[in-house]
Amino acid sequence: MKLRVGWLSxxxxxxxxxxxxxxxxxxxxxxxxxxxxGQSAGERASGLAxxxxxxxxxxxxxxxxxPEAAIKIIDEAITQANYEIMALGELDPKxxxxxxxxxxxxxxxxxxxxxxxGDSRVYLLRGDKLQQLTTDHSLTQALIEAGTLTPxxxxxxxxxxxLYRYLGCKEGGAGTNPKQVRPxxxxxxxxxxxxxxxxxxxxxxxxxxxxxTDPQKTAEAVVQAATDGGSKDNITGxxxxxxxx
Length: 245
What we know:
single chain, five-stranded antiparallel beta sheet, 27% strand
């Protein structure tokens, strides 16, 4: 499979950047994290996730692994990072209650494993259809699923940024249940923090991803669209172009 990748992470309207991302030099896996818990704590949590998870993912046999074996290592990587973030938060009072989202695409034996913990997202543009592949672990999403809140109401709901699962809480290591996607030539994937989705709607994302011809310039265009759209957060986007399978 031929993949091209571009990425950008900016501080936006915040004082510091608590987002982080990781792009494997061999294009085998791609991660985005969005830290929380205050400046030093949020940066530490997302940075720790980007250090620990890639180290564990290296154990996957990317050429021949079964889906079950790949998912086992992915979940072990997330669980280990969750434990270490929780432990460090207990040891250092300045880092108490720190946490981070984590969202991933892991490419194993021709299949994309897509998932995460928190409310950072993965989107797939295939043809002219944009699909959100991940599900937010937020209170508003839980209310939508319960039928007590509409997606339109959730956009400006007071609990839209409140998470019930993230790395740094007991539920953070409870498994990722990743989707398995067989990529097609022409597919475009976006992994992003909520700084992107806080500034652009799906129709704008679809337009920006569709018109791009270079993944780096497209990642920059996604971040710029979120900035122009009034995002108040750090903004991070990783863009993957599938050229052939």
